[in-house]
């Protein structure tokens, strides 16, 4: 596995559009240059194995996933407390492209692990959307989820390298992404 030239750690609230931004970056750079990594995928895969659940259904935005979300969060926290890099290592396994976009960075321990392992190529990106925009995207506050570390762990303690506002203004989003892409392309 070649060392990446850039690692973008995306974070943001549920329905802020983190996955959309990650996929836009991959689409504009191309899949040979950029891969999207998800810390939640290895977490969900291991949780599904240990609990006899359908891994593929845990990956989508279904009621199935929501039914297990709180227990999955608790289970993941237990795993992280014993080994903070467990899911990070699993997520990067096999990644070969020069640009990695981690679409679901949620905790300070995730940021610290990537910075410790990959150093100066790591940049933090906060994707923000107003509560009104998130509600239009079908977000509803859920106690135990939206106030848990998995959603609030990076609300403090991180000085973000980039803040991308994703409130539905396509021109504004395009301009923000192009500025970020110019910096990434210089690293290639």
From TrEMBL:
Coiled-coil annotated residue ranges, if any: none
Subcellular location: Cytoplasm, Cytosol
UniProt-listed InterPro entries: P-loop_NTPase, Pmev_kin_anim
Enzyme Commission number(s): 2.7.4.2
Primary residence: cytoplasm
Cellular component terms (Gene Ontology): cytosol
Keyword set, alphabetical order: ATP-binding, Cholesterol biosynthesis, Cholesterol metabolism, Cytoplasm, Kinase, Lipid biosynthesis, Lipid metabolism, Nucleotide-binding, Steroid biosynthesis, Steroid metabolism, Sterol biosynthesis, Sterol metabolism, Transferase
Domain of life: Eukaryota
Pfam assignment, any one: P-mevalo_kinase
SUPFAM superfamilies xref list: P-loop containing nucleoside triphosphate hydrolases (SSF52540)
GO terms, molecular function: ATP binding; phosphomevalonate kinase activity
GO biological process: cholesterol biosynthetic process; isopentenyl diphosphate biosynthetic process, mevalonate pathway
Catalysed reactions, semicolon-separated: (R)-5-phosphomevalonate + ATP = (R)-5-diphosphomevalonate + ADP
Biological pathway: Isoprenoid biosynthesis; isopentenyl diphosphate biosynthesis via mevalonate pathway; isopentenyl diphosphate from (R)-mevalonate: step 2/3
Free-text function comment from the UniProt entry: Catalyzes the reversible ATP-dependent phosphorylation of mevalonate 5-phosphate to produce mevalonate diphosphate and ADP, a key step in the mevalonic acid mediated biosynthesis of isopentenyl diphosphate and other polyisoprenoid metabolites.
Name of the molecule in the record: Phosphomevalonate kinase
Species this chain originates from: Melopsittacus undulatus (Budgerigar)
Gene from which this protein is expressed: LOC101875348
């Amino acid at each position: 596995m070649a060392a990446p030239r850039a690692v973008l750690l995306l974070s943001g609230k549920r329905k802020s559009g983190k996955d959309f931004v990650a996929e836009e970056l991959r689409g504009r750079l191309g899949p040979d240059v950029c891969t999207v990594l998800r810390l939640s995928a290895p977490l969900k895969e291991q949780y599904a194995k240990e609990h006899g659940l359908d891994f593929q259904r845990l990956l989508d935005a279904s009621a199935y996933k929501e039914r297990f979300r709180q227990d999955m969060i608790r289970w993941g926290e237990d795993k992280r407390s014993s080994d903070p890099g467990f899911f990070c290592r699993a997520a990067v396994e096999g990644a070969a492209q020069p640009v990695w976009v981690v679409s679901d960075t949620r905790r300070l321990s995730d940021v610290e692990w990537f910075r410790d392992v990959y150093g100066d190529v790591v940049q933090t990106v906060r994707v923000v959307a107003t509560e009104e925009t998130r509600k239009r995207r079908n977000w509803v506050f859920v106690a135990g989820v939206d106030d848990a570390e998995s959603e609030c762990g990076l609300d403090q303690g991180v000085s973000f390298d980039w803040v991308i506002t994703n409130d539905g203004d396509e021109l504004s989003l395009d301009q923000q992404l192009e500025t970020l892409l110019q910096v990434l392309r210089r690293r290639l």
